[in-house]
Amino acid sequence: MSSRYVCRTVVLVAALATSVPVWARILRSSGLIPSPLTLHNALRLALARSPALAQARAEIEAGQSEEKYRSQLPDPVLTLGAQNLPADTLALNQSGMSMLGIGLSQKFPPPGKLGLIHRQLERDTAVLRYRMQNLKAGVVRAVRRAWLALYYDDHALHILHENQALYRRIEQVALSRYRAGRGQAADVLKARLAAEDLIDQEDAWRSKRRQAQSRLAQLLDLPSFDGITVAQTFPRLPAIPPLQTLLTNLSHHPVVVAQDNVIRAAQFDVAAARRDFYPSYEISAGYAHRATPGVRAPNLVSVGVSLSLPLFPGERQDARLHRREAQTQAARDQRDDLLLSLRRQAQSRYAEYDALTRRVQLLQQRLVPDARETVTVSLSAYRAGALSLTEVLHAQRAVLNQTLRLWALKADLASVIADLDYLATSTEGHFHAY
């Protein structure tokens, strides 16, 4: 029994290590996720399980199928018939004009139109591919932000828990001074109330953490967020290029390249519409056999060409062409607006990135260490009777606020980095999936 269990475990571990889709299917069927969940694994799970990405892949397959059948000639038409039968008997042997016939016809669009339609459909499928790439980048950004929010909530709860212990220590100092006759009972109560206030703050933060868990579970396509815990090691985030490089490369962003292909498809559609000013045609051929026995008459062969006559282009072809040209111009305008919007986002988020980086450095290198040093000095002064407990509690509250502020700024900075990495996504470079 034990050997069989070991074998099954080895097979499962090998499947998880070698195949992400197998791993994702097992996790989906079991409802389990790795614990603690690293950002790397969260991104892998989201990309493997995203319903939106599955829908995008299905749309690409549908577009590829449409490429095949819409760029082909229509099916030929086979005609079978009997001709010149007597109306009273419908017999084949009464009239020398009675015949049995077979025919074949094939319709052809104006020359060059099928090739233009094929190239248009190729661009349409390319649009779907680039939009899926943009969707992947969006999923990565959303998962990064949700994971980092949960990571920050965990650290905030840890900080609040640590500060409860510090307030309890201050309470013990106040109690010792009170018992020695050098302090007041009100000081003990103040320290106790300050610690209990942190308990209430911790409960509120746990509610906030549950909301972050719910957002992450939704992105991972999990039915429940119970049991989601994130790793406590801060992940390595992608490097952000210089602003000018970022702005220059925005023209290669998947959403912009997708719009470029929308424009190209519209141009092919315009060219195909211009082909409608030329006739389409149909070639047909037929063979007729004399059905009357004893009648010496030749069998008949027929061939023919039928042409459409676009004699009134103002009624049809002109209107269709103008509509497609207007759609092409609208696609160009949409690309300009899209690129302008991305440039504004990049400039705005880069300014936030610079500002947050400076603020994090200030808090991390100066304000938080200075606040902690102030607490140490204040507590020593309080023990010596040179400082009131209110000032000690104020100093300790400053440390707590500054530390929470530091982690909040770190989380904001990581979210801005996630946004900038999304904006830095390029069809010509490496995709920062994880």
Quick description:
With 434 residues, the chain is α+β, with helices and mostly antiparallel strands. It has helices spanning 2-18, 20-30, 39-49, 51-70, 113-179, 185-219, 243-249, 254-275, 317-383, 389-423, and strands spanning 77-83, 99-108, 281-290, 300-307.
Largest sheet: 4 strands, antiparallel
Main structural class: alpha+beta
* Tally of individual helices: 10
> Architecture, according to CATH?
Up-down Bundle
Radius of gyration: 38 Å
**Widest sheet, order of strands:** 1-2-3-4
Indicate the percent of residues in helices: 55-70%
Secondary structure layout:
Blueprint: H1 2-18, H2 20-30, H3 39-49, H4 51-70, E1 77-83, E2 99-108, H5 113-179, H6 185-219, H7 243-249, H8 254-275, E3 281-290, E4 300-307, H9 317-383, H10 389-423
Antiparallel strand pairs: 1-2, 2-3, 3-4
Helix pairs in contact: 1-2, 2-3, 3-5, 4-5, 5-6, 5-8, 5-10, 8-9, 9-10
Provide structural commentary.
This protein is α+β, with helices and mostly antiparallel strands and 434 residues long. The protein has a single domain (13-25, 32-73, 115-277, 336-423), classed as Outer membrane efflux proteins (OEP), CATH 1.20.1600.10. It has 10 helices and 4 strands, in the order H-H-H-H-E-E-H-H-H-H-E-E-H-H. It has a 4-stranded antiparallel β-sheet with strand order 1-2-3-4, with no helix packed on it. The radius of gyration is 38 Å and the shape is elongated.
